[in-house]
Amino acid sequence: MNAPRIIAVDGPAASGKSTLGKKLADALGYLFFDSGVMYRAVTYLALQRGVPVDDENAITALAENALIDIRPPSRQDGRSFDVWVDGQDVTWEMMTPVIDAHVSQVSAYSRVRLALTNQLRRVGLRGQVVMAGRDIGTVVLPEADLKIYLDASVEERARRRYAQLLAHAGGDEGQLPSMPEVLDSMRRRDRLDSTRQIAPLRPAADAVIVSSDGLDADQVLSKVREIIADCP
User: Fold this and answer.
1) What class, spelled out in words, does domain 6-226 have in CATH?
2) Model confidence over 8-50: pLDDT tens digits?
């Protein structure tokens, strides 16, 4: 099998992009990189430093100057990779509804996207990479050899996000937002992502659309590997 050198995996929040991307990269011996962590990192940094998310100039400065590093997972706590911002591990701090509520606004800023897209392209164009995000196949790496758009219903995606948060909290529901709150946050995120003027969430014209509803991670991986096997 001659695997595509550059694989883009796009889709809405909690559709399983990161899980698929990591499993696929491991199977192929490729680098896995989730572009969304860049935007989450900048959003986290803004909130931590008290920078208003509606101040585009200040947010852009953070995106241009922050030291964001992606590393292999250092702990067996459900993470697919470590995310470090200015020397601090913020992997789980970035996966909260508070970040969900603001990251779409941050990622809509054209100069923020330019600053981070340039970095993403440098990584992707080296090849042997699986990059996951929302605009990889349409904007970041339109030359990707294979483009997968992974979808799932909003209810299924909210259930997955809640289960992920619950597992990280050690099963203590008292420390979490309610399931209806997670669902509402997911719907708002979808609406913002799909209607923003810059790089809206949508499948690339040549993307293969895969639904993960009712499938576990290994079944999704199997479907994508079948797609790869059929690649010319």
Assistant:
1) alpha beta
2) 999 998 899 989 999 999 999 888 988 888 899 999 999 999 9
